[in-house]
Amino acid sequence: MVDQFAIQYQSPLRVLVVEDNPVDLTVIKSMLTGTTDNYTFLKTASTIKTALEIIEEYPIDVVILDLNLPDSQGEKTLQTVHNRFNDLTIVVNTGAYEEELGLHTLSNGAQDFLVKGRYTAYTLNKVLHFAIKRKKLETELTRTVQQVKDAQEQLLQAEKMNVVGILASGIAHEVRNPLATILYGITYLHENIRVEDKNYHHVLKNIKEATKRANDIISDLLDFSKFKKLQLDETNIHHVIKKALSLIQYEIDKKTLQIVNDFQNSIPPIKIDQNRIEQVIVNLLLNAIHATEEGKISIRTYTRTLSNDLTEIPQISRKNFTPGQQALFCSIDDSGSGIPAEDIDQVFYPFFTSRRAKGGIGLGLYVARNIIDIHKGALILKNNEDKGAQAIVVLPYR
Ligand SMILES: Nc1ncnc2c1ncn2[C@@H]1O[C@H](COP(=O)(O)OP(=O)(O)OP(=O)(O)O)[C@@H](O)[C@H]1O
Ligand SMILES: [Mg+2]
Question: Which of 178, 186, 195, 354 is deepest in the core (most CB within 10 A)?
Fold first, then answer.
């Protein structure tokens, strides 16, 4: 069995001794080279400036740091090294009467301290090994705590979305019947009642359109419950993308847009519900088009083996994937307005839209994420570094 906390030393241990006193330096060097461990990778520095340069250049496991150097004194020396190289293991080497200072350094970034003249080669060796081990555990712990915090935050968001979703589909059920009655009534008035007022038909038409729009929203919401029953077929994703593009050609034609397809050759077929994934691609493409007045939209497909820690997948969707599995990526890149920082956490919420005045409902991404989730995939939306936004659909091969 592999002990996950066992120290995996690079052999030999890479030590940097920062010491300006030649006698102290000789003592430490002889102790290090005299132990059973092989400290052949040993660097030395007598100023903080050289020390920082060496740490920058070489992979150092542990630094034995004298605090009083020609160019830096006291705890500031520790601070400088620790602030710049947060993950580095530091063991402070204090003067003979500075035990209190040594203790103090422990809360400021040092893993341990040695008091000059009061340690042997044996203790020095032990101190260095345990310092590295402790530092590794500390780093791992800090990372894990951060991951737990992130996961909690995302769970909270997911739960909120879930509640809003349940509410929305409950309301949709309730509102659908009265809407049908209104639509039926308007059609009846339109066909059977003669009224001289010249605005009559115009008003009826407006009511009918508004009702239809309300009905479409409701249909979208109710449709969501149907997603659970997927019609899975082995599919070439490129056919789905081309179909989606043909469906929205009219929107593309309204603008000056260049659509670039960067498709991976001979992409393996994937088991998906074609209609649903087509709906996702349509929603994402429409968003890209709406955000881009003039410019380029690139659609790229590729397959990739996922990493063992799944860091390329947002935490919220990692449950859908197995480490190291094969996945299909489809990214839609636009050169449009991008998403304002204050909106980025809300874009997946139902009814969040920045395009209400232009007919946006705010269901496109909500529906898309649900479809992808039922496919056990991931949907990522982020801003590009230079311009515009990028949506990525990740679907696992099973
Ligand atoms: N590619 C993009 N670039 C910039 N903003 C985007 C992009 N995609 C989504 N957004 C933002 O996210 C919001 C929500 O998107 P979503 O698709 O859910 O709704 P919508 O497009 O506004 O309306 P609809 O329900 O018609 O799709 C958008 O209003 C927009 O502010
Ligand atoms: Mg949309």
Answer: 186
Atom of ligand 1 nearest to the CA of 381: 8
Measured distance CA(151)–CA(19) in Å, rounded? 44
CA–CA separation, 299 and 336 (whole Å): 14
> Which pLDDT belongs to residue 216?
80
Asked whether 350 lines ligand 1 (CB < 6 A), one says no
Furthest-apart CA atoms within the chain: distance in Å: 111
Say if ligand 1 is within 6 A of residue 69 CB: no
Cα 374 from Cα 165, distance rounded (Å): 14
- Ligand 2 centre from 381 Cα, in Å? 12
Q: What percentage of the chain carries pLDDT values higher than 70? A: 93
**Domains of the chain (ranges, CATH numbers):** 15-119 (3.40.50.2300), 154-226 (1.10.287), 233-396 (3.30.565.10)
Tens of pLDDT, residues 188-225: 988 888 888 888 888 888 898 888 888 887 877 766 55
The answer, yes or no, to whether any atom of ligand 1 lies below 6 A from the CB of 295, is: no
* Nearest ligand, measured from the Cα of 289: 1
